Prior knowledge:
two-stranded antiparallel sheet; two-stranded antiparallel ribbon; 58% helix; Membrane associated rhomboid family serine protease
Amino acid sequence: MATCDECGEYENLPYQCKRCGKTFCGEHRLPENHDCPGLSEWDDPEAVFDSGFDDSVEGGNRAADTDGIAGRVKRRASRATSTGGIVGYFRGNATYVLLAAMWLTMVGQWVALAVGGGELHNQLFVLESNALWQVWTWVTAVFAHDPVGLFHIIANSIVLFFFGPLVERAVGSKKFLGFFLVAGVVAGIGHALVGVLTGAPVAVLGASGATFAILGVLTIWRPNLEILLFFIIPMKLKYLTWGTAAISVAFVVDPSLAAAVGLGGIAHLAHLLGFVVGLAFGRRNESLANSARGRGGMRSGGGIRGPSGPGGPGGPGGPGRR
């Protein structure tokens, strides 16, 4: 059962707008009933009606009139990035794009291990405190996870799947993507810098910092959101997030305590940094959440029965995981 992105009502037979990619009930399925951004393109004949057919039948004359190849490329790019183009599909679906990126990265990790072993894998996907100059790992490490076990990526995928859309609908796909990446990078680099300062080598990977940031946002926006811990125990989101944050602080202050309870080797500091980024982002964009709630896109009552587990959204894992 889907939820209408305009009014928030549950819909057994939802409609997906081909222009903006969002889901609506029967009442709001028409573009003019949900303020579809594609409506603005009706004032631009090229964006709506230009299929490229004229280019083929008019040949060089039309190309010459529109700056030749440059004009043709510009028109094709405009069609691809319009709400009805390829890029338009990802509007409103950034959460699922991120999920796909995480799992595709996992496949890439397996390939790297098979081709070049652990050295190549770490160079491509692991953010290491003694190799911060490998700037690509600042980003790839956000999407990479433990390539041996699947629990790490599954736990983060579950959190992103259940809670990501709540933030995305309020702030928009583009802003949500930027927030996710910034939170993940800040969490990873922050944890690695502590290793630089202490002289202890640190290697991190995983989206837990970013997913913890999502939970931080919702802690500000919807602290009383009901979730199911381990899919069984009902509780409010604020108790889970603040409780996990407190435990993470204790583990950061005394790493031996984390090791004693079987939660050593987890980047608890990265969890905390992501959570702080989420709290700040949530506070700064609280007006957007209120606006989304007014449209019905974010309900103040009830909640999503989302899961979580020990050690935060990343769950317990091996060395360097966050």
